[in-house]
Amino acid sequence: MTNKSNEYGYIGASPTQSSSANTGPSCCSTAGGGTGGSGVVILRYPNTFTITDDLASLTMSTATDGSDKVTTVTAGTGTVSFG
Questions:
Q1: Do 47 and 22 share a domain, yes or no?
Q2: Which residues of the chain have pLDDT under 50?
Q3: How far is it, in rounded angstroms, from Cα 69 to Cα 67?
C-alpha cells in the first residue's frame, strides 16, 4: 500500500494490518487498528475531539497546536477512542 498524506498525518497500512518496528504509520481509521511496532506514535487531530486511553494502559501526553491537538504515545499496549 502506498502511504498517502492528509491534513492530519499519514495513512499507511490498512486498518487491520500489523506493522514492523519503526517502519512508519500503522493505521488511521476508526475501523480498528493493527499491531504497531516499537517506537513512538504521534496523533494529530482537531481540537474538537478528546482522546481516551480505553484501558488506561498507555503513556501519552497531549499538547495543543493551533486548532489541533497532538498526542504522543511513548509506551504501553492498548487502544484509544476519540469523542
A1: no
A2: 1-5, 8, 10-17, 19-20, 22-24
A3: 7
Burial of 14 (0-12, 13-18, 19+ CB in 10 A): middle
The Cα 36–Cα 79 span in angstroms is: 11
Q: How many structural domains does the chain have? A: 2
Q: Are residues 22 and 46 in the same domain?
A: no
Which parts of the chain are beta strand (E)?
Answer: 4-6, 9-11, 41-46, 51-53, 58-65, 68-76, 80-82
Q: 25 with 48, same domain?
A: no
Instruction: State the Cα–Cα distance between residues 46 and 56, nearest whole angstrom.
Output: 22
